[in-house]
Amino acid sequence: MNNSNPNNPWSITNDEIDEEDNKEGRGDDDDDENNKNTTSNNKEFVLDDDRILYSLPSPGDNNREDWEINNNRDDMNKYVQTLQDDGVVVIPNVYTKNQIKKMIKQQKRIHKKVKQMMSNEDVEPVNKPYRHDFDKKRYLLMKHYEIEDEDDDDEEYEVIEISPGRYDYVYGMNDDERYPIFNSNEYCCPSILSELMDTLLVADYKSYSGCLPSDGKSNDGPWHRDTYILFDDESIDIKLPPYYYTVLIPLVPIGVENGATEFMPGSHKMTCKDSMAIDDSNESNRFQASIKESDLGSIIVFDGRICHRGLRNLTDQNRTVLYMVWTKKWYNDY
Ligand SMILES: O=C(O)CCC(=O)C(=O)O
């Protein structure tokens, strides 16, 4: 079509586009340095007005070396490949033992405070639907507690009881100066993780943190994906490039006794029906991510579309896992 609309100030004719193309080839535009932007293949685009193009630094660029621990480039390629193929990978030595100790201490303070707020006489849990998609959009009724932090202008937060004694909340985990470890670069974007996300999500992504504490003894969680089905048809979601990653950071060893996280490798690229049809008696078709005591500081990273579940906790011991969610900015985890 070559029909310029005189009523529409944004309409451009093909002739005008050709003219712009020719100009670009000749490079005879305004050569003000401030108006230039260099793209990754070094082709220069020049604005023809006085607006200034600005490139945002990548979120992982700041002071990486200060807190580099696991920064082996060969491993990096392996993690990227495994996440693309299997949808889940365990990365060792992302945090030091000292950092894990700080996280445990501050998370315990957070948990104590959350329990206090939950036991306030004004707080009544309400059964509300919680989105837990699998082959289709699915809601499970779960107890929700609305808590208020009187030390922070009565700011309101939600605590969800995923199964008896097993909770999910974000209180204290994001930009809260009272719990500085969770507010720090060393926690939020260790170099291996920020580089991984740079590679996989590429640009325009965001993250937030939360906590999954359990008081002991819980049942198997349901199989689910962490992503919401975008167009009520999972066959669309599984064809998209990655847009959602979950990161689990165990603060206690996790395994068969207290509930490993179980995954169906490859199911981020399959319909749930096809994934469930795969023979689960063959061990290689199921992956149970366990972290030993000596391996604390490791993280489990997975594509949010992978089918997974938390397995039962047979012990009376607390099982606390922190999580981060990294998504493209357009994704809304509501
Ligand atoms: O607690 C776990 O191991 C499982 C967590 C989980 O299902 C999730 O992050 O969606």
UniProtKB/TrEMBL annotation:
Residues 1-14 have a biased composition (Polar residues). The lineage of its organism: Eukaryota, Sar, Stramenopiles, Ochrophyta, Bacillariophyta. Residues 15-33 have a biased composition (Acidic residues). It comes from Fragilariopsis cylindrus CCMP1102. PANTHER family: PHYTANOYL-COA DIOXYGENASE FAMILY PROTEIN (AFU_ORTHOLOGUE AFUA_2G03330). Residues 1-44 are annotated as: Disordered. It comes from the Eukaryota. InterPro entries: Fungal_Metabolite_Diox, Phytyl_CoA_dOase-like. This is PhyH-domain-containing protein.
